[in-house]
Amino acid sequence: MVTLWPSGAGVVDVLGLLRVMESFSNQTAWNNPDRYWISVLTLVNWVGNVLLPLYGAGQVVLAVAHFAGLLERMTIGEAWVRNLISAMCCFGLSGLLRLGEFWVQHGTAGVR
Q1: CA–CA separation, 6 vs 95, rounded Å?
Q2: Backbone dihedral region for residue 69 (phi beyond 0: left; psi -120 to 50: alpha; all else: beta)
Q3: pTM (predicted TM-score)
Q4: CB 102 within 8 A of CB 81
Q5: Domain locations in the chain?
Q6: Is 83 exposed, middle or buried (0-12, 13-18, 19+ CB in 10 A)?
Q7: pLDDT tens figures, 58-86
């Protein structure tokens, strides 16, 4: 029996991504030459300030749960180390994106 669940979920995912991209690109007028740049900047800002910190916080919670032994039978090995490294990578990448954003915004004074 063929189910329509994957195709329905795909349609919802595509429509959701389309709405997100519309919100990124609708911040300026249609004829603004910086529209693409503002969309990319908004996407990087959203990923660096929302997605990566939330994912990192989730990994910290999982690391604590694994270290406490709550999810001991779910995986083999020291899973809390894997979660802790993932959290550190997320927070580090988020910080690097914020640092790059700061350099881009304040770096125009030295460029001639």
Answers
A1: 36
A2: left
A3: 0.59
A4: no
A5: 5-109
A6: buried
A7: 888 888 887 887 766 665 567 777 888 88
